[in-house]
Amino acid sequence: MSWLSRFKNALRPRRLDEDLAAEMADHLERRVAALRAKGLGSDEALRQARARFGNVTRLHEESRGFRLWAGLEGTLQDIRYAWRGMRKSPAFAITAVLSLALAIGANTAIYSIVDAAILRPLPLPEPDRLFLLSWPDISDPGSPSGQERDTFSYPEYLQFAAVTKPVARLTFVSSPNRVEAQGPNPDAPLEKVNKAFISGEGFDVLGVRPAVGRLFSAEEDRIPQSRAVAVLSYDYWRKRFQADPAAVGRYLKVQEKAYEIVGVARKGFFGVEPGEFVDVWLPGTLYESRALSDSGWHWFRILGRLAPGVSRDQIQARLQPSFHDFQVQRVSQFPTIPSAIKKQFLESVIRVHSAATGVSNLRKTFSRPLWIVFGVAAGVLLIACANVASLLLARSTARVAEMAMRVSLGAARARLIRQMLTESLLLSLMAGGLGWLLARGIAPLLVSLLSTKDAPAQFVLAIDTRVLFFCIGVSSASAVLFGLLPAWQASGVQPMLCLRSSIGQARRPKLGKVFVSVQVACAFCLVLVGAAFLFSLGNLLRVDPGFDARNVAVLEITTETAPRSGDPVEWNATHPGEQERLRNLMFQFQGRVASQPGVQSAAFAWWPIFEGGGWSEQVIIPGQAPSEREEILYRVSPGYFAALRTPLLAGRDFQPADSSARQPTPTIVNEAFARKYFNGSSNALGREFSYPFGKSLQREVIVGIASDAYYYDLRKSADPIAYLPTEGTGGFILYVRSPLKLGSLTRLVEREARAIGSGTRVREITTLETIVGNTLLREKLLAGVGGTFAGFGLLLAAIGLFGLLSYSVGRRTKEIGIRAALGARRGEIVSLVLRDVSALVGAGLVAGLTAALAVMALFRSLLFGIQKADPLVMGTAIGLFLLTGLVAACLPAQRAATLDPVSALREE
Amino acid sequence: MAKPNSAQTALDLVVLTVLDRRGPLHGYGIATAIEDLSEEALRIEEGSLYPALHRMEELGWITAGWKISETKRRARFYRITNTGKKQLASESARWASFSAGVSRVLRHA
B15 near B56, Cβ under 8 Å? Predict the structure, then answer.
């Protein structure tokens, strides 16, 4: 009650004052009346009444102190004062708020993604007790290692779960993959969902409860699993079933197989992978039956929850012997394995990582770029702060007389600083509010930069207290950053000096110059980094991949097949009849599509290039030891090289008959392959090699040499590739070269697919350009965001420079006027104005360059074709910067040069 | 909070007693009541009554509100609260023992 009334009074101090005054006046009047009743004259009565009452002002202040919250009142006063000040100079306020808002918004947006993708713990109970198993990836001899592999097989999982039983509970979770699903209604559309497998006790281990129905239990771990059941995510349930509890018990078709929905996981559980949300959970025991017994089939991650008081090291110690046994067994299955690789297998050690923040494939690719982008945003914020600081400084010069007056009236320095910091805080909080709104718009845009159509990145970007705190924190910190120095400087005025002359201001520009130098250094650093990323992306885009990706559509086709086992390599041997049928269907399909008007050529392969899918084997040349490295093998149809415009340098293209040829099978290799294994393409034609195929060897004979083409990635040099004639398969990729629009081309291919029958369907449609572009997401993120921010930093620095110059010309109007009157030429005046600024810019450039070189050394691996001190990048950055500086300096210098001496002197 | 046995406590005690015995009063009424009660022995600067009243108001011992007085004028009337009454009881007991102590010392001096 009393606290509340004091709070209310602080909000409306005037009313309290009136109240107090009225009460005391009432008392005095009554006393006067009483004294007059005793017979005193009115003047004497008033004098006596006042004497008896005491000092009204002091008593008023004393009462006031009891009845309002003085700290709040002072703050409110400061805020009102600051608000009035801002209203008086709206141009300053708008510039300051807008530039800060952009910087704060950018920082908040990036932080919200960094937080969602990297920092935020999984929304599970006690996430600190969760852990993830991994082991060092086997690397090619000589190439840098350090990568980790975190997938395991079902037998390993069972063994690991058994040995850790008393101290931890394990579960497996497969990486989500996008598949087609169809709801239970007859007219339900086919849609893409993220599906993942989990162990029966998985939900329990993770600590997830059902929202509706039940989750999986030990029942679902039984092999063979007879019941096809599924658990939905809360979001998917809401989207597809409108959160209807009756969805439980109905059937969902996933990849054409019906699963009974037994329950819905609780709200907010998206899986263990930030960035990829799981829609449908299936029991792992419903995966391919061979995957449940084959220890070579790695298809899920293993996560676990520590029992209380158990450390991850204890888990590691328990797991290592079992892990080693599996590695020994693995090595023994591949007798031809190179010894260097064998050694790595046997020496590898299982690792137990914390999984508190989840696991993420996305994080591997994007965590460093995200931190870099975050750093760039921080740089922009620093520039914006320096900018506002110098604006404030310039403004405080205008207010020096006011400050001097307040100081001479006895205002304490701390009180003045507090008041000016309130102004800064008001600015930055307004900017923060605006920045928050901006961030809500920018964050989804940034997420879309991390996404591809097939793998959209998903993050929980809802309004989050952590992000909100970050936003407020950044705003307040920047207020202190840009407000404190000007406030300190302004409150330190010497009233005497100020009133006497303007000597008191002489110190001021020095500080302004410091801010400009900081800005220049930061902005130049950003420009250099941004230029490096842009050039890096440009270099990648200019790489000749060895094929022509323009106008090539990539269509994923499936057709019905007889039931088959999952291993494509053994497919050939196990189903010769079915194989031949499919092969004929594929060739027929290719022919029909290729003969359509508007289609230049069509060819198929088993999977698309540049999507990470591949098959590699050791190459064995007769009379030589097996190769140390496994080389890429890629099955393609006749016409592949024509469709992709990869020139055949020698020999011939494949023919349909090659697919059914006896061993040695005709093969086309690229130049890199020929160079590596046959000392050049001229020797390779007609030579033989083989690769391990199950327990035997598959023999190949080289009938053609193709020029080099990239397969996985544009960043490395072209890999050696052996192209093999195609085999029949139920799912393949059709490359179609055509100038037609993707939509009409798709309709055309769909028509042909229906015509050919056997359930042939078009699944996925994209273009080769998109696929190749998707491998450059990281570079595009860095170049896009880095480039934009660099531009923004440059703009802010230009504004700062412009401000300082305008200010210094304004301050030296009299001096310039005198010089002009004495006959100084324009050039001299301009150089006078520019002289000290160019020194500042120079100092900033040197500092920025040093910083940029140091920073860039940290992420050299993310740059492509950029040297340590790349002359092109540096030249561009310096050129751009000087040009901007020149533009910013032009106007003030022009003003100085054209100053009319007479009016300049009169102005003073 | 107020230091015990100070002049402030004495004033508080007097004001609370007046309000307790005479019911709601405005500031001037309290001042004249104190004059009457103490037969002008307890002379205070009249104005210092107000900070004391406002302090006790914030402490919740008394409440106040604007009312039309007997002379048809607007005046701020004070009334003792239950908390105030409790405060009065405990403080007057303490005051009694304190003044007893003082008079004993004075007698022996």
Answer: yes
Query: If you search the block for the tokens 């090659």, which residue do you land on?
Result: A658
CA distance A327 to A340: 14
CATH architecture of B7-108: Orthogonal Bundle (1.10)
Q: What's the residue count for chain A?
A: 908
Phi, psi angles (nearest 5°) of residue A265? -70, 155
- Among A869-878, A899-908, B53-62, whose mean pLDDT is lowest? A899-908
DSSP A152: B
- Kindly report the three-state secondary structure assignment for every residue of A795-839: HHHHHHHHHHHHHHHHHCHHHHHHHHHCCCCHHHHHHHHHHHHHH
Q: Is A290 an 8 Å CB contact of chain B? A: no
CA pair distance A286, A301, nearest whole angstrom: 16
Residues of chain A contacting residue B27, judged by C-beta atoms under 8 Å apart: 23, 26-27
Q: Is A446 exposed, middle or buried (0-12, 13-18, 19+ CB in 10 A)?
A: buried
Q: Is the pTM of this model over 0.90?
A: no
Q: What is the pLDDT of residue B42?
A: 63
B36 in contact with chain A, both atoms CB, cutoff 8 A: no
Evaluate if residue A81 carries a pLDDT over 70.
yes
So where are chain B's domains? 7-108
Mean pLDDT of A296-324: 92
- B45 touches A: beta carbon within 8 Å: yes
Q: What is the pLDDT of residue A306?
A: 94
d(Cα A425, Cα A419) in Å, to the nearest integer?
10
Distance CA A615, CA A607 (A): 10
Summarize pLDDT for A599-636 with one digit per residue, the tens: 999 999 988 998 877 788 888 888 887 777 788 999 99
Largest Cα–Cα distance in chain A? 139
Residue A499 pLDDT > 90, yes or no? Answer: no
SS3 A670: strand
Q: Sort strands A665-670 and A615-618 into parallel, antiparallel or unpaired.
A: unpaired
Mean of pLDDT over chain A: 85
Cβ contact A603:A735 at 8 Å = yes
B76 contacts in chain A (CB < 8 Å): 19, 22-23, 26
pLDDT of residue A818: 85
Alpha-carbon distance of A672 to A687, in angstroms, equals 15
Q: Which residue has the higher pLDDT, A512 or A248?
A: A248
Residues A159, A320 contacting (CB under 8 angstroms)? no
